[in-house]
Write a structure and sequence with these properties.
The protein has 199 residues and is α+β, with helices and mostly antiparallel strands. It is built from three helices and eleven strands; from the N terminus they run E-E-H-E-E-E-E-H-E-E-E-H-E-E.
Amino acid sequence: MQPLVLDHNSPSGLVDTKKAGSTTVVWGDYGLRMKDHDRRVSAKQLKNAEETINRRLRGERFRLYKRVSANIGVYTKGSDVRMGKGKGKFDYWAARIPVSRVVFEIKSKLHEQVVRDAFRLAGNKLPGLWEFVKKGDPPMVGITKLGNGVTLEQLKEARREMEPKDNNRTQPTTPAMEGPPQTMGTGLGPPPTAFHVSP
């Protein structure tokens, strides 16, 4: 669940959703897929989920595939430490999992309900929301499921037609007022000024 060699400190940052990886089941028959949004999952959480699946399916014949690897080192510093002085000390390994990424797959001849229950228990050990998928389910683009008339080309198109920019549009003008201007004076200051009063 963790890399063997650490060449350098891993950069900090958010999950790169452009590298979402596969959103469908490839090697097995059933899979567990991230549902809500991308997040960082620690190697300990992935290990707990794996042990939960193995514990639930103990005695059965199956093969478990792990589709993600905790290859991101997380470094932490104390809460009352001044700025600077480096990134901090190594704390734990983690994996950046984008939305709709398949994390675990199972290949076996077990009943679907048994595998679904094992993935439900494993999803309870992981942060976020997870969903059960089968081999042959349509792929995902973000949180949108392809299929039923929805294609990747349609998602790339603009949702509404763009209006052409017209530089020769005329600005709205106020209508001219009719009649002579009215005057108002108080007798305390300079002579009254003329101004227009709308009817």
